[in-house]
Amino acid sequence: MSRRGLHLRAAWFAAATVLVALLGAWLLFGRGGSPLQTDLLAMLPATERHPLAEQAVQRLAHANGDRMVLLVENADDARAKAAARALGKALAGDKAFASVLAELPAFDLAQFVAPYLAHRFWLLGDDDRAALAQPGYDPAQALARHLNEPFVAGVGVPLADDPFGWLQHWLEQQPWSRSPLLPEDDLLVAHQTDPAGGERTLVLVTAELAGSAYDDAVQRRALAALARAEQAMQHDDPGTTLLRTGAVFYAAAARAGAERDVHLVGWISTGGIALLLLWAFRSPGPLLLAFLSTAVGVAAATTATLLVFGQIHLLTLVFGAALLGEAVDYSIQYLAARANAGARWEPLAGLRQVRPALLLALATSLLGYALLGLVPFPALRQMAVFAMAGMLAACLSVFGLLPALLARPARPVAPSLVRLALALQRAVARLGEGRRGLALLLALVLLAAPGWWLLRHDDDVHLLIAQPPALLAQERAIRDATGLGNGSQFYLVQGASAEQVLQREEALAQRLQALVRDGRLHDWLGLARMAPSQARQRADRALLAPLFADPARLRKMLTDAGLRADAAAAYAAAWPGAPLKFEDWLATPAATPFRYLWMGCGAHGCASLVLPQGQDDVRVLAAAADGLAGVSLVDKPASVSALFGRYRGYASVWLLAAVLLIAPVFGWRYGWRRMPRVLAPPVLGIGLALAALGYLGQPLTLFHWMALMLVLGVGANYAVFLHEGEPHAAHRPGAMYASVLLSAVTALLSFGLLALSSMPALRGFGLTLLLGIGGTALLVPASRPVPADTAP
């Protein structure tokens, strides 16, 4: 190809790169909203056996996802209430929030009770139901007992409307009556005793965001508004503290951690790689061209990821910053070939020289990332697509751009680097020869064996992303103060109709109530408790029927107990009333906070959710649903952890399969007798990395195994680079291994820095790559004969 042809190809490639970059920029910034995904659920795979269960997980996660839950706390009751009112007013005046609830709207308790009066003879509490079923039940004693009960502070039913207290007792079992938060001075207030014995007042404030909690702009506006309001509140009411929870706080913390990681990995690795390339090639030109190739890869990777997925996960963003170290390998090899050629440099000849090595290295890298993409885990698949597109574009840029830009010869690689590489290459190559090689291999195995024995596994999904301890502590404090449960474990109740679902809920409720009596469960939240099945209501009415069979006797019993005659007559005349219909109850204001528990009816029948509170032991919760038709426990974290465990188990098989796939390629290229030595360094690097993880006490996760897959691909690249390039650099012993070391150090500067990530999954990923790539780079010279004793 002529010089003109090289420039024409470079121009076409540059134009295509610009178009790809412009498309990526539009996908990033031109569509409105942020494509950065901070929602943990969006990163997790579908694990539930029934699609309805996955819908339920999403519904629960986002039922309150766009809401801040705040708890204002002060030892002084008046200050706590004043601070809560001020906080509510400050937030309500900010456009970052769609609605804020601090002070309760004026309401009449009688209006709250009124909708249930027409159904009072169909609704019985558990204790009343059990008492009425006893043969010796005495209604007169029940009447006298209720008339002598203390005054009800919460939702109370007038005695004339409920002289026996049956409706009152039923209402006391409802969630709004059992909450530690009670209406007080038009606020929802709880009182707690602190460790010193003093009493503290806690006031609830909730704020609905004007947008998604996972939108960067929404997060920034809302958190800034809250910070201003909190500062003013603490100034005006000293001693006040604010507890907070909500998806917006976790999403903002995850975003901040990702930004820190990107800066740490991106800037430090970029600076380190720049200094390293300046030292090695002794000119800024190769440095700029190496980063140009990397920029092409990153632009293509970002665009491809957005086209395929429409968004970028946090994990992918941080992983992409680390990809710099591998994408630069291809340009380093071409730059090294130019530096080693000296005055004989010719761009096309150099391209022909490095093409086999680059294509073989690209194939092994793509194989490793393709296996990463086989895991049914959205975040890993996205990382795989990002890496494959980036690697392919970076490699193609070497073919399309660099020959036209590197027409003139260059200075040789820094002699000090070549001398260091040659000394190391000779030492390792000699150790790998003959009996010394077998002895070295045996020594490494003996050294690694205790580390392998110490290896253990941990598949907990919570290791995926670090959750700030301060936020977790505040969430626990709010849960303890309000009685709210977490939404990670729940029961999915299914049936052919709403009536069947409610009946199955009631069967589950009997078992859950037994756990409550045993102190093994704090409480539970379910629709059948607030709107019983028609079968349950008919049974309750049947228990009351004998009492109302003789109206005159009933009126006399009531008047003898002290009720006015007209009130007694009105009560007797109200019998039997009407059952409470589920669909009618769903439409009432009282059902508004609980409608998310009803999944509705569709192709899969009808379904509802029941939330256990105060119990995290999956064995206890699963036993409560055992054998109940249509009832299943859904535990998203446990199911994802189990999936991670299964695929972690498969990962070792995949790793072996990858080795078996690479082996025939190396056998074809280097001969079957030579193949084991060429493949040995990455395989040994994997084994030594596993041993080191064992010695460090690092529990293996799926991410460690995926990193080992990349160690195989990257390590195989180094063997390929050395074997393909050594014949062309025979006049400068050590120069080819120097370029391999350059590639390895750039990878360690990027991937290795992931070991400092705030995300536990990426920390393990980075540490494994640091150990595996470092070990492989040092062992690669053992795969070739000792170079001649010629001074470089």
UniProtKB/TrEMBL annotation:
GO cellular component term of the entry, any: plasma membrane
InterPro entries xrefs: MMPL_dom, Mycobact_MmpL
Keywords: Cell membrane, Membrane, Transmembrane, Transmembrane helix
Superkingdom of this protein's organism: Bacteria
Annotated Membrane transport protein MMPL domain residues: 202-409
Ranges annotated as spanning the membrane: 264-281, 288-309, 315-336, 357-377, 383-406, 438-455, 647-666, 678-696, 702-722, 734-755, 761-780
Record has Transmembrane helix as a keyword: yes
Gene3D superfamilies xrefs: Multidrug efflux transporter AcrB transmembrane domain
Stated name of the protein: Putative exporter
Organism the protein comes from: Fulvimonas soli
